[in-house]
Amino acid sequence: MSDKLSARDWINAALKTLARDGFTAVKADILAKTLGVSRGSFYWHFTNLEAFHLAVMQSWQDIATNAIIAQVEATAKGNDRLKLLIHLAFTADSSLEIAMRAWGRSYSPAQPFINAVDKTRLTYIKKLLTESGVSPTLAQSRACIIYWTYLGSTLTGASLKGASLKNLTDELALLARQK
Fold first, then answer.
1. CATH number at residue 99
2. Angle at the Cα of 56 (from 55 to 61), degrees rounded to 5?
3. Is residue 55 part of a domain?
4. Is 67 in the same domain as 37?
């Protein structure tokens, strides 16, 4: 790679490294070796490791919320949005999610980003449910059921495929919309 890396290049490399090797590998010297550049390139874009870590966490937050919501909104309409969201959640590679949550347990500045992701996701699921006619009170409870099912599946490493995955996503979508 060239020494003319952008801040985005460093952040993307960090996200890949985080997902693959965990938060202890998100360091300037390790990433510089991976990218084939000197650490000077790193310090051109980031004042210190903490500023870099915050940028990586912000990027993850955007990817884990805004990008998914935009994809769902652009791809599906009406009640199909919830079904698509559930499908995307249960078929996505969960390595980055797991790594971020592990980082949050060891590095307190990560926790506000994780909390913000959880809040945004729950708010969006609740919005989809209320728009499909579920009362706000029920929508809140059902959003938690859907989201906590996702988190449980992700954090335990459960992997569903084929008919099992379809049955789970169909049942969650059906349960969520019952009046």
1. 1.10.357
2. 95
3. no
4. no
Instruction: In whole angstroms, give the CA distance from residue 72 to residue 65.
Output: 11
Dig out the tokens for 158 from the structure.
Answer: 């459960």
CA gap 71, 88 in Å, rounded: 10
User: Could you give the maximum distance between any two Cα atoms of the chain, in Å?
Assistant: 59
pLDDT at 1: 44
Cα–Cα distance, 100 to 26 (Å, whole number)? 11
> Which domain, by its residues, includes 5?
1-46
CA–CA gap between residue 90 and residue 166 (Å, rounded): 10
Contact 95, 155 (CB under 8 A): no
8 and 41 belong to one structural domain: yes
> How many domains would you assign to the chain?
2
Residue 38 has pLDDT above 90, yes or no: no
Cβ atoms within 10 Å of 152's Cβ, excluding its own? 10
Task: Map tokens 């310090």 to a residue.
Answer: 43
Predicted TM-score (pTM) of this structure: 0.91
pLDDT digits (tens, 9 = 90+) for 100-127: 999 999 999 999 999 999 999 999 999 9
